[in-house]
Amino acid sequence: MPMSIVTERGSCTKLPSENWTSGQTAAGTIHRHSRALPLSHSQLCSLVVFVLFSCACQLPSTTPQGQGASRSDPWTAAMGNLCCCVQVDQSTVAIREQFGKFDGVLEPGCHCMPWFVGKRVAGHLTLRLQQLDVRCETKTKDNVFVNVVASIQYRALAGKASDAFYKLSNTRSQIQAYVFDVIRASVPKLHLDDAFEQKDEIAKAVEEELEKAMSAYGFEIVQTLIVDIEPDEHVKRAMNEINAAARLRAAANEKAEAEKIVQIKRAEGEAEAKYLSGLGIARQRQAIVDGLRDSVLGFSVNVPGTTAKDVMDMVLITQYFDTMKEIGASSKASSVFIPHGPGAVRDIATQIRDGLLQGSSVTQH
Predict the structure, then answer these.
(1) Which residue range or ranges hold the Band domain (predicted)?
(2) Is 92 in contact with 125 (CB distance < 8 Å)?
(3) How far apart are CA 18 and CA 319, in angstroms?
(4) How many CB atoms sit inside 10 A of residue 142's CB?
(5) CA–CA separation, 27 vs 8, rounded Å?
(6) Which of 38, 93, 251, 359 lies in the 20 to 30 Å Cα band around 176?
(7) Share of the chain above pLDDT 90, in %
């Protein structure tokens, strides 16, 4: 229907309703004291619904940063607030305020929330276990820079939900600051190798400090783990080279020890072989002497008038010619000079006899 607008001059200009809804106006500004526009019953109802819905849309909760809460669907929240109802999910609590003041904690489920008396949901707080990974750079006692990675598992306490919601604006930053403080106070007291060995002690120190600090804010530290200690790449390469050199040195020692054992066993084998060879030669010579003695005795008995000296000379002559035969058969390019006359046998026998007599005299003295 047409509507009237009063201009500065006091004249009244009529505009069609479609022009009014599209935002068009007549020339001039609207006078402050113009009379109210007449509205129909349907338009009035629509305006009331629009105002109520706008108020309800301004009531959905806001969640402080770092609390780990999630927003619900704005349309669902608006309709719930419009109906004075609010839903809290499982493993989550809601913080209720009345005119900006804390009024209570809402457990999971459906709750009545009369927004028209100033009550609203200020935010949600999750009770689930959360994990924060913190990477801290520090220096060891032997001046090696390392990156220590700590994993913090924490959760909010339902009995202290108001403290967890209001006392901290950023829980993760607060935990990270405490982790930095403890790690940078503990690791510089240790050498690099000791830091790897005492990871559990470092984690325990971090957990104790966090437990004392965060319990006042309504949070529980479930577990603290030192998941990794990362030295610089050059330091890791040097450590690997040191380890490799130590293993090579140990391998060289083991190899030398093995060669030593082989040589000792070889020498023992050669000594045993020579000992057995000597026993064989001694037995051989003993057998030869026994055979010669039997031959001399038998020859003396069978040939009357012969002496033992004659028999020995004959045996030496026989061995002398056997030796010359073997030398002539086995000698190829070498030249061997030996006495070849018959008198040489007598000289050899004399030399052997003199040597035996000298050995007997030395043994007796």
Answers:
(1) 83-243
(2) yes
(3) 152
(4) 12
(5) 10
(6) 93
(7) 29
Q: How far apart are CA 93 and CA 78, in angstroms?
A: 19
Cα dihedral 315, 318, 319, 321 in deg (nearest 10): 160
Strands 12-15 and 85-88: unpaired
Residue labelled with tokens 């509507």: 3
CA angle, 340 then 346 then 351, to 5°: 105
Q: How many CB atoms lie within 10 A of CB 345?
A: 18
Q: What is the dihedral of CA 56, 57, 62, 68, to 10 degrees?
A: 110
> Are the C-beta atoms of residues 86 and 113 closer than 8 Å to each other?
yes
CA distance 126 to 219: 11
Tokens of 260: 């030593």
Domains of the chain are: 1-32 (no CATH), 60-126 (no CATH), 131-231 (3.30.479.30), 307-365 (no CATH)
Q: Each residue of 304-333: pLDDT tens digit?
A: 776 767 777 777 777 777 777 777 776 565
Q: Give per-residue pLDDT as tens, 94-130.
A: 999 989 888 889 988 888 888 788 888 888 999 999 9
Amino acid letter, residue 335 = S
